DNA sequence: ACCAAAATGTGTATTTTTTACACGGTAGAA
DNA sequence: TTCTACCGTGTAAAAAATACACATTTTGGT
């Protein structure tokens, strides 16, 4: 027997229905042969209406009817893990210039009902407005992360892990800007942090903190369409961040 | 065809030679069927002679002669990833009550010459003295992490990632104590941190820091066999650490 | 018995970072 | 014109991190 995973069929069929059908078929074959499959699941975060959102798709397996699942797919034979994650992102959102990072592998024996599948979870952060138009698939929806009903498979657990990862990561690395427009006000930035971390922050200290990092660039422009005094718009200086010397020593604290 | 991975053969054969031979056979079969294999590699850290060490095994594949590799094995069909990592640790060191944590998955297409294999790296921290007797396999050796020659496959890259992971992790969580005897002097603890982080720390501030955390317990005993004034011996209070409330907010800093 | 060597144990002053906190200004809406 | 809501700014207090020196205890050598 030869179980060549047909990459054309799996990866280049847009939408979910047909692709998922093929995946199901493949999984059955894997299961009958006692083979462990490997997949990538993308946890795609967005920020809208001052809330953290996650992009989910309706599972089309009967057993998981009406449950939402992460965007995932089997890994093709010729692509590495990162490539697989980028492919899924590209297929679902049309984007390839996005933040993407591996978070964790999940390999519980019974995590997938059809076969033994080990999945690698990736986190991606995108700006919802910027990418709204590219999502044509009706099965896709942005969900609030904080109020989320049951999910398919172990995807709730994966999401929880990724959310905690994000909360930590966003404080140490400038990921958050990927969720905002290129130009943003300090208020928007603070809303982002407050929403993701679920804390209230002092406005003046927040500004002081960010300005002292010297990575925000004044664009000279102002907010518009706000029913109050408009704030200045800034952009994040990635170049400066790259060149910045990282401090090696953070200090012991636990 | 059926490719049942014979768990008995793979996992319960001690030593490396015969087990690796079977793994090689299995990999050839995977490759010919175009199937992605999945393995776990353990990066086992120890601390000895004031240096960070890693436990390696001599690769028995011709192509990687005289190179050292991490302790790894294919994941069995009936065990989850963590279990696989614990199994490998148990087989190699005889231990099952050790620190173990998943670090990252590695899935470059050409990372293994025999077949496409995605591996999940786990880090483990053990006390070398405590476990010295259980390691009977002559192919196993503790190596300095800082001065390490070429390794097999992409294991050098995996080790590098795990070492960086350790450097960061050890500052936020009390992992380091797993590398020390149950009772240790503050000097030993400081040596550990200085070696792993490659920094020099002020002795008084280091002590102040750890005592202020309130997690070190004075055993009332003293060092012995030291050619100078003996220091007090402490142990780490894990219970107290567990009960301690974690601070949610660390502060933005990048 | 004494001395030298080496590492232990301890406190304070200085600097840096974090936190708390209030008011005048400006744009839009009514 | 007035109201509302948010923008922009500085300082004082507290907390945390850093720099730094000396007397003490043990071992080992003479």
Secondary-structure map:
Two copies of one chain form a homodimer.
Chain A (H helix, E strand, L loop, with lengths): L6 H5 L5 H17 L3 E12 L2 E8 L9 E2 L1 E4 L6 H13 L5 E8 L10 E9 L2 H4 L8 E5 L10 H18 L13 H12 L5 H11 L2 E7 L9 E5 L1 H6 L11
Chain A binds a DNA duplex (30 and 30 nucleotides) through helix 7.
What does this structure look like?
The structure is a homodimer of 254-residue chains. Chain A is an alpha+beta fold and 254 residues long. Chain A folds into 2 domains: 7-172, Nucleoside Triphosphate Pyrophosphohydrolase (Alpha-Beta Complex); 183-243, Winged helix-like DNA-binding domain superfamily/Winged helix DNA-binding domain (Arc Repressor Mutant, subunit A). The first copy, chain A, has helices at 7-11, 17-33, 81-93, 128-131, 155-172, 186-197, 203-213, 238-243; strands spanning 37-48, 51-58, 68-69, 71-74, 99-106, 117-125, 140-144, 216-222, 232-236. In chain A, strands 1, 2, 3, 4, 5, 6 and 7 form a 7-stranded mixed sheet that branches. Chain A has a two-stranded antiparallel sheet with strand order 8-9. In chain A, a hairpin with a 2-residue loop joins strand 1 and strand 2 (51-58). The radius of gyration of chain A is 20 Å and the shape is elongated. At the A-B interface, strand 5, helix 5 and helix 7 of A face strand 5, helix 5 and helix 7 of B. The structure holds a DNA duplex (30 and 30 nucleotides).
